[in-house]
Amino acid sequence: MHEHVTHPVPAEWAANAKIDADAYALKYRASVDDPDSFWLGEAQRIDWMRAPTKIKDTCFDTDNFRIKWFEDGTLNLAANCLDRHLATRGDDVAILWEPDHPDTPNRQLTYRELHEATCRFANLLKDKGVKRGDRVTIYLPMVPEAAVAMLACARIGAVHSIVFAGFSPDALAQRITDCESTIVLTSDEGLRGGKKVPLKANVDAACAKAKVDTVIMLRHTGADVPFVEGRDVDWAEAVAGMSAHCEPEEMNAEDPLFILYTSGSTGKPKGVLHTTGGYAVWASMTHEYTFDYRPGQIYWCAADIGWVTGHSYVVYGPLMNGATTLMFEGVPNYPDFSRFWQVVDKYEVEQFYAAPTALRALMREGDEWVKKTSRKSLKVLGSVGEPINPEAWDWYYDVVGDKRCPIVDTWWQTETGGHMITPLPGAHALKPGSASFPMFGVQPAVVDPADGHVLEGATEGALVILDSWPGQMRTVYGDHDRFIQTYFSQYPGKYFTGDGCRRDEDGYYWITGRIDDVINVSGHRMGTAEVESALVDHDAVAEAAVVGMPHDVKGQGIYAYVTTMEGVENTEELRKELIQWVRKEIGPIATPDVVQFAPGLPKTRSGKIMRRILRKIAENDTGNLGDTSTLADPSVVDDLLANSPHAK
Ligand code: 6R9
Known about the structure:
Layout: H1 11-16, H2 21-33, H3 35-42, E1 56-59, E2 66-69, E3 74-75, H4 77-81, H5 83-89, E4 93-98, E5 107-110, H6 111-127, E6 135-139, H7 144-156, E7 159-162, H8 169-178, E8 183-187, E9 190-192, E10 195-197, H9 199-207, E11 214-218, E12 232-234, H10 235-240, E13 251-252, E14 256-262, E15 270-275, H11 277-290, E16 298-301, H12 308-320, E17 324-328, H13 339-347, E18 351-354, H14 356-363, H15 368-371, E19 380-384, H16 390-400, E20 407-410, E21 444-447, E22 454-455, E23 459-465, E24 475-476, H17 480-488, E25 495-503, E26 509-514, E27 518-521, E28 524-527, H18 528-536, E29 541-551, E30 555-564, H19 572-585, E31 594-597, H20 611-618, H21 635-643
Parallel strand pairs: 4-17, 6-7, 6-8, 7-14, 8-11, 11-12, 16-17, 16-18, 18-19, 19-20, 30-31
Antiparallel strand pairs: 1-2, 3-13, 4-5, 9-10, 14-15, 15-24, 21-22, 21-23, 23-25, 25-26, 27-28, 29-30
Helix pairs in contact: 2-3, 6-7, 8-9, 11-12, 14-16
EC number: 6.2.1.1
Domain AMP-dependent synthetase/ligase: 83-465
Family: Belongs to the ATP-dependent AMP-binding enzyme family.
C-alpha cells in the first residue's frame, strides 16, 4: 500500500535547490562516464597544499587490487575545517553545544575559538609524544572537546580511533590494543538523560588490560575520580600552558585519517581505516548536496561521534562546509519527549538528521509532544542507520515536518565514509522507505546472492557497488587480507555491502537489511558472533547462538539461545544474570532482549548451526521452518518451539 505513495518534489524546491532533477541526471552521468574530470572538479572544494594531478587509481580485482584517490595531492583536514574559514567567517559559530539538561548553560565556539582550542590541544598531544601516524584513542562524551580532539589529531597527522562512550572497559581495552595506541582521551564522566556514565573509571579498568602510557582527562561533571600520577593529565590545566599556534602537518591524500571499529559477521570488530583526501572530498560533497546545505544555516545531526555518522556529519562534513553544527549531549526523551523539537526551535535548526529508532520511540508517545513546538525553521529531515519503516517515515514527514520538508533516507556504512544511496531534496520524488538513488560516482548493482550475476531491471538480491568512490575505506587496520576477504571475495571484482536490496520499476533502491550475521539494534551494528562470544565467556554457558528478532522501537532486538553446562540449573535468576553479563561485557547497547535456554542447538551433521531455523523461531514465523531433515537431531527444534517466549 505505502509503496504506491510518491511525494513529488515541491515546486519551490525544484526551483531553488542546488541539485534539481536535471542537474542530478547530468552530474550523475558525468561522474560515472568520466570520473577523473568529475572528481577533479569536486576536489576544488578542498584547500590542497599541493593540488592532486592523479585523480583515480582503483581496481577491485583481487590480483590487481588498489584504491587510491588524489594520490599525489597533499592537504590537512583540520586546516580545511578551520583555518580556511578564519578570514571569511572566523566569528561565525562553528559548534553549538546543547547540554543534557536544558537548564545547564549551553556553549558555543566560533571558528576562531575552535581553531585556537584545536591548536592548543594539538600542541599538548605533541608534548605528550604523539607523532604523525600514531594512534590516539578517544573515549569522550558529546562535548565540543571531542571535536577539538579529532581536529587536533588531524592537524598533527595522528590517527584517531573513537570508541563509543557507551562501550565497556573490555571493549575499550580490545580496541586500544588492536590499534596499539598508548594514549587515551576521556572525561571524568559522561551524562545522558540525567544518568552519569563512569568514563574515567572505565578507562582505568581498560588500562589494567591494555598498555596505556597517557590518559588526558577532561573535567566535565566535576566528579571526584582517581588520578594516576605519571599517567593521567588534567586536560584544562595542561592545555592552558600550550601555545595557540600549531602549523598543520602536510598530509598525503592517502595518509590515514582515522580508524573506527565496527562489527562484522565474524570475529572481533574490524578497525575500518579511512584516509585523508578522498574522505575529505566525499564528506564535504555529500553533506552539501544531501542536505542542500548553505553557509549560515544551523544544521543538526543527532548522532554520537562514536559512530561514523558523528565523524562525517557532526564534525568533518559540516565544518569543511563552514556550517554551524549542533552537538547534543542528551537523549530524545529527557527531560521529556519534546526535547528534540524544543532544541530545533531554540536554535532554529534547518536540517535535522537522526535515526529511525529515535523516531519510532517518540512516535509511540503521541503527536502532542511534537505539535506543541513550532519547527517552522526545518527545511530538510534526514534518516540514517537502518531501514525506516513507512509508518515512521509518514510520521516524520506529516507530524515533524508538517508535510513541508523532504526526507533524505541516507543509506551508507562505516566502510563507505559517507552517503551512498539517498534522495536529494530538490531532485527526487520521495517514496517512503526507499533510499532512492545513488550519490554521484556510486554504481550500485543488485546481484543474485547465489551465483553473483548482476540482475537487471526491477529485481531483488544482494547489494554490491561496482567501482570505487573517494570516501571508501582503504583497509582493515592491521589486517589487509581480512579487508579483501570480507568485502571483495564473495562477489569477485565487486564491493559487497552485506545488505539485501530491491530495485523497483522506477529504479528506486529499497534496502531490506543485512543478509549476513550482523544485526542492527537501534541503528547500531552488532555482530552476532560478538554477543555469542560474550555469552560463552560466562562459566555457566556451554554454547550460544544469537540472532536478530523484530523489535518495534529498536528495529531489531537480540535473541540469544543458550545451552548451559552440564549440571547447571536453568533458573530465571541465571537468565537475568546472563543478560546483565552481556551488558557488562560489551555495553548496554548489546543487552539481549530474549535469552532462551536450549538443551541443544539445531545443527547439521557437520556441526554447523542452522541459523535460519533460529531466526524463524525468534521472528515467531514457525509455520515455515523449511527442511529440518538434515539436522543431526531434528527433535531439538521441538524443544526450541515449545520453550520460545512466543509459545507462552
Ligand atoms: C551510517 C551507518 C551500516 C548498516 C548498513 C545497513 C544499515 C544504514 C540505512 C541502513 C537502510 C538506511 N543502514 N543506513 N539501512 N536504510 N538509510 O549506519 O553505518 O553503523 O556502519 O551501519 O546500517 O544495514 O549496512 P554503520
